[in-house]
Amino acid sequence: MQEALAFTVHHSDPHTQARIGTLTTPHGVIQTPTFVTVGTQATVKAIAPDDLARLGVQILIANTYHLHLRPGEEVIRELGGLHRFMGWPGPIMTDSGGFQVFSLGAGIEHGVGKIGIFPEEAERGGHLRPARQGQSLVRVDEEGVSFRSHLDGSPQRFTPESVIDMQRALGPDIMLVLDECTSPLHDYEYTRRALERTHRWADRALVRFRETGRQAKRPKAQGLYGIVQGGAFRDLREQSARFISGRDFDGIAIGGSLGASKTEMHEVLDWTIPLLPAEKPRHLLGIGAIPDIFEVVRRGVDTFDCVAPTRLARLGALLVRDELDYKLTITNARFERDSAPIDANCDCYTCQNFSRAYLHHLFNAKEILAMRLATIHNVHFLSRLMVQIRQAVAEGQLDALKREWR
Amino acid sequence: MQEALAFTVHHSDPHTQARIGTLTTPHGVIQTPTFVTVGTQATVKAIAPDDLARLGVQILIANTYHLHLRPGEEVIRELGGLHRFMGWPGPIMTDSGGFQVFSLGAGIEHGVGKIGIFPEEAERGGHLRPARQGQSLVRVDEEGVSFRSHLDGSPQRFTPESVIDMQRALGPDIMLVLDECTSPLHDYEYTRRALERTHRWADRALVRFRETGRQAKRPKAQGLYGIVQGGAFRDLREQSARFISGRDFDGIAIGGSLGASKTEMHEVLDWTIPLLPAEKPRHLLGIGAIPDIFEVVRRGVDTFDCVAPTRLARLGALLVRDELDYKLTITNARFERDSAPIDANCDCYTCQNFSRAYLHHLFNAKEILAMRLATIHNVHFLSRLMVQIRQAVAEGQLDALKREWR
Questions:
Q1: Residue B117 has pLDDT above 80, yes or no
Q2: ipTM associated with this complex
Q3: Interchain contact B339–A (C-beta under 8 A)
Q4: Sequence spans of domains, chain A
Q5: Top-level CATH class of A6-306?
Q6: Average pLDDT rounded to a whole number, residues B91-110
Q7: Residue B118 contacts A where some CB pair is shorter than 8 Å
Q8: Annotated catalytic, B302?
Q9: CATH architecture of the domain covering B6-304
Q10: What pLDDT is recorded for position B129?
Q11: Which of A134, B162, B215, B329 has the fewest CB atoms found within 10 Å of its own CB?
């Protein structure tokens, strides 16, 4: 079978595990390491493909769970697949939906709702059953997982095979296997059993992936990544890294609970990445805060995604190098008459044309344009940071750049 | 004093009152007749200046009432004026705020709230006094008008002079005098007295306009339009048309209640426009539905503004020639799998890149991008229609074009 993806490491940093490479996909070549911009519902919230192209975005990640529920993968297949549907000609990956299914369930089980649904609220809301002892909105069995749609409460079922089928219909360049995301509150024993099942699911996903690749009349050039799980338990993470590395995946994602603290997240990467094959691309799911970016790149991650840059933008938190936590809160009264751009050194459309005072006004007046201009800046900020990071890795200066940034 | 505006009529249609011309402003030349895109709070909702430039937009109208309340005209003056503040280098006009002040007041007086505040709701809301017999949120006297901010209930005062001062601070190319907008529910006697006061206000505005023009160290090149009022009463409209025509305004706007029906609106124009000097530009306030556009252009209107095209866009009503009422309701289920663009003959960014199915999905999923893509289409639709209309007027074919459009 023709290879959908080709990954080449051009340079490995002698001081860290960082590396620079190119990931070639059917829809374009990606320079790594790079940030993957989130486009959950087949749109990067508040900006369009014309913006993305200007912002140096190389690859998007959309979400199988959300697109399955709305508008449905068959609608997108009929419309020519995700690239054509959303008007983005560049590379796309899709998350399997495992995180969304299980984060909803875990939230109900443990009362730590990710999607803002707590047992009491769910009860009042009417269409979601609250969790009781041993009862959850999400039921996992050997075959797959049953859950209810967060949109209308309708019963849903995902299996490793159906999730491959959905992604065949969506048509991204990179697909991910269905995995069970355990919560930080799950114990060792549960996490171990869930991991073993996730590994059996990975094998089933591979079988379906090969079948559907052969059956397709016009075999779509798509790659499939396995996902390393295992919570914050070292032996489970190592076991998972070895298992997934031993399979014929096009790349390897690291997912699930990355520990309760940043230190634990670093440990998980330190345990996992040395066991992964050097020649395959590595994706880290759900990480993207500025300080984290340096840490994950120096540990050998090639791509990573996170909603933070775009979500922060919509909340008026603009990414800049010289503020606490790298965030300028534009709604703050001190910006009311500030004629400076967000960042005087930034060449994004927003900074080249608008003052902090204007953005302050747009956010205060709840104008929709605020969202677009802020998102343009934050996405551009990430693109520019990644250019600097790739340059620094190439020159063996990643830790120097990291120190410059704090 | 240097003329801020220059208007030239190039051709008058022998069959109708329509004419084509150019209106030269300090920030660019406008081909008339043209639609003026609404940018109430110093932004055209959901799109940015880079969009506007691509869409063939010639001129915007912002609102003095809204900008006075937030962020305040002094903030905008400090930031270099409206053009620089909002990053739009082309012509801008500002409405005086009269309509907003009085439409709020009339809503309270007559229980037909424009801004959604009914007496009972205002009472519950706490900060707005409900109207009782003879009591209103808006109090007009000879000097000016007192009202409360719709944002925070704070007491506010506008006079013909203060509104000129505000617009000097905002710095648009075209300013409008403060007028009293009577409601269709006001009787002849009230409308007559209000009109006479509005005329005295117009003279005071002219005096202040001349003073501030002389006082300015760098006299800003701004023009001032008078406003014809008089409700749906023929003799009052004629009296007002003669009065405003006799004053030294740079252009003439037609405002206020344009009657309770389209027929009455046409009558108001038929009474008024023949009395206006041919050499001055004429602006019609608040009109912009497709069928109305043909009617007002054929009666000799040069520019007109309306929130409808942009507001409809945000509600998912997309302007097309071949649908009932020229609106395609994209949220309709029949578009779920429709791979066609909104309009196959449209060359806007939205139609060139996205299907009806994608827009349907974005509106269903309440994605912000829906607003931008829909607004781009509707604004482009208006621009393109006006190009056709100008061409038709030049060729004496306006009524033929109107028939083609229904």
A1: no
A2: 0.92
A3: yes
A4: 6-306, 312-404
A5: alpha beta
A6: 78
A7: no
A8: no
A9: Alpha-Beta Barrel (3.20)
A10: 30
A11: A134
